[in-house]
UniProtKB/TrEMBL annotation:
This is Sugar phosphate transporter domain-containing protein. The chain crosses the membrane at residues 42-64, 76-94, 106-126, 133-151, 189-210, 230-252, 286-303. InterPro entries: EmrE-like, Sugar_P_trans_dom, TPT_transporter. Its main location: membrane. Residues 12-303 form the Sugar phosphate transporter domain.
Length: 346
């Protein structure tokens, strides 16, 4: 029975991963096709935020996702939730600009630098130190992206800077999202819904003043944007695929270990790069492919180094320290003292 149950779990995980890879690749191909014909990355972002807002509520209720309480203090809401919504919008816009300006394969290679930004920002914001293995894993990532950049035949500076800005914004969003999830206990899918809805509300006036005016009358061409059925269909499909991709990613995360998820995510990036190279056919050199491969291998090594660091931290000896407060609920770990809840938060 146990073997049969394990076999079913393996089959389920493989099916979800293949579905995740297929949807993510399709989303990137559709996004590139859309932005090539419809160069309005802010509008594409707003459609995706609208999809999150419209589909998430009914689907999460149907799926039985735990609802969040509405008693989040306004001060905390303004201090963290609102900036996170700004970050989500900006990260998505920069991501779409990068896909618009450079090939999808190159944009995803640049996004492989996320561990570098995560380590750097965590050191500054959280004062978090890493092991030498984690720092060493950043070397092939940076070198690989540098090689891919120098050999990229379709290089565009705006595309490179947008991809880097998007990666840094996503790294910041991940760091502060973890803090919000820990502080409030909100389910992370409801946090996705909350941030998407808030970003849609906050940036609708900017979209109305900037992109909508250009859609109605473009000062460069002197004409309105050509919103035919093909463009509308791609916009709708892009929004659905982007939303569904988040749902599949959560499903995978909920049934595998963090290391397995990290490896699956890195493998997904390889799959997306390969599929977009085949389908979209952007020109590449063997040196360019070498740079992409080196960067992805660096990401895999980074994930293994972080897992080893987390495992080592969890296996540190714990013992009671009654001299500080006389309570048996106080623990000391490597000189750090706190109660059980604080220890679990570390």
């Amino acid at each position: 029975m146990d073997d049969r149950r394990n076999s079913r779990e393996v089959v389920t995980i493989l099916f979800l991963c293949l579905l995740w890879y297929g949807i993510s690749s399709s989303s990137n191909v559709i996004g590139k096709m859309l932005l090539s014909e419809f160069p309005y990355p802010m509008t594409v972002t707003m459609v995706q935020l609208t999809s999150i807002t419209v589909y998430s509520g009914p689907f999460f209720n149907l799926w039985g996702v735990r609802k969040y309480s509405s008693d989040i203090p306004w001060g905390y809401y303004l201090r963290l939730i609102v900036p996170l919504a700004f970050g989500k919008f900006l990260a998505n816009v920069f991501s779409h600009v990068s896909i618009w300006k450079v090939p999808v394969s190159y944009a995803h290679t640049v996004k492989a630098t996320m561990p570098f930004f995560t380590v750097f920002l965590s050191r500054i914001i959280l004062k978090e130190k890493q092991t030498w293995k984690v720092y060493l894993s950043l070397v092939p990532i940076v070198v690989g992206v540098a090689v891919a950049t120098l050999t990229e035949l379709s290089f565009n500076m705006i595309g490179l800077l947008s991809a880097l800005a998007s990666t840094m914004a996503f790294s910041l969003q991940n760091i502060y999202s973890k803090k919000v999830l820990h502080d409030t206990g909100i389910h992370h899918l409801w946090l996705l819904f909350m941030l998407g809805r808030l970003a849609l509300i906050l940036f609708s006036p900017i979209w109305l003043l900037y992109d909508l005016r250009r859609l109605i009358y473009d000062p460069v061409t002197g004409e309105s944007a050509d919103l035919n059925y093909y463009i509308i269909g791609l916009l709708f499909l892009d929004g659905v695929l982007n939303w569904f991709q988040n749902i599949i990613a959560f499903s995978v995360l909920s049934i595998v270990t963090p290391l397995t998820y990290a490896v699956a995510s890195a493998s997904k990036r390889i799959f997306v790069i390969a599929v977009t190279l085949l389908v979209l056919g952007n020109p590449v050199t063997w040196l360019n492919i070498f740079g992409m491969t080196l960067a992805i291998l660096g990401v895999l090594y980074y994930n293994k180094a972080k897992y080893d660091q987390r495992t080592e931290k969890e296996s540190l000896p714990k013992y009671y320290d009654k001299s500080r407060n006389g309570s048996s609920s106080s623990f000391m770990v490597n000189g750090w003292t706190g109660n059980k809840q604080q220890l679990l938060a570390v």
